[in-house]
UniProtKB/TrEMBL annotation:
Residues 149-297 form the Alanine dehydrogenase/pyridine nucleotide transhydrogenase NAD(H)-binding domain. The gene is ald. The active site is at residues 96, 270. GO terms for biological process: L-alanine catabolic process. It catalyses: L-alanine + NAD(+) + H2O = pyruvate + NH4(+) + NADH + H(+). NAD(+) binds at residues 134, 198, 203, 220, 239-240, 267-270, 298-301. This is Alanine dehydrogenase. Its EC number is 1.4.1.1. It comes from Fulvivirga lutea. Residues 4-137 form the Alanine dehydrogenase/pyridine nucleotide transhydrogenase N-terminal domain. InterPro entries: Ala_DH, Ala_DH/PNT_CS2, AlaDH/PNT_N, AlaDH/PNT_NAD(H)-bd, NAD(P)-bd_dom_sf.
Amino acid sequence: MIIGVAKEIKNNENRVALTPAGAQELVKRGHEVFIQSTAGEGSGFMDEEYTEAGAKILPTIEATYEKAEMIMKVKEPIEPEYNLIKKDQLVFTYFHFASYEPLTNAMIDSKAICLAYETVEKSDRSLPLLIPMSEVAGRMSIQEGAKYLEKPLKGRGILLGGVPGVRPAKVLILGGGVVGTNAAKMAAGMGADVTIMDLSLPRLRYLDDIMPANVNTFMSNEYNIRELISTHDLIVGAVLIPGAKAPNLITRDMLKEMRPGTVLVDVAVDQGGCIETCEPTTHENPTYIIDDVVHYCVANMPGAVPYTSTLALTNATLPYAIQLANKGWKKACKENKELELGLNIINGDVVYKAVAEAFNLPYTEVSKYLN
């Protein structure tokens, strides 16, 4: 198969979909790998490293899309890329369709095969291609939250871990999944007073067992959220419904119950956000303020630590990319249910129910294409 790796063009996105080591593994198996020139530089990988691994360099994004049967990316295509995507081309990347209708419509019109990292799902309901970036984003949410709690950045002026004789900051984490667990670990390690909320009692029991003494668990419901937001300094939204829009757990009216300088970090922004006042921001302009509450809603948080993120992502995606390249997408998805669940749009048909429901679009059973 001919595989193309395009350079990411989203604002301040420095990750790349494939490391030189990953390229070498695909080349070893007889595939051709084409890397757009300088695609890896933001993550610390030079063109020469890719050519030494057996890949070939193409000068432009247009040439890369034109050449490839499978495009590997990190972030969803943005408007300048829509017309570059061809009929029957396999695009393997994060899409987060349910949060952005224009992208969904563009990919329907392209007649491409859209296989989304975020909906590849194991039998235990875990999301293997979302987990590495969720781990990064969860840990970063505390790192960034701690920074924006500083007074010059309009926060409350509180040190996350406190000092002897002074109480630490109080951190509230909405969601006990991968993002929430990593956020809680990081916040606890920095000495904060942490509360993590979830709907699942078994999950709360598990977290209660593994977390240090400065992490408390609490059942998630509107009453409890309203009770806690007025006393917490940093609030992290870490809720995910695979392939669907995140629910609004913090509504506009709740901001007035928070103290001035409270910081909100919405890690669910890629899926529409779990904070009603959340609007996607960039690393260039990461925050805005509503009712004296600081909102940090960067849609590609792991892009700020691209070396770590690119390695973590390739570790997870490469085994699936090899299956797709070796067998073709139809056979690979038919033989691997995890990959089948990654299919969102095929030749203009929406084959992932949550995406169809998000925009009231016709839904087509994926079996139409795999049988």
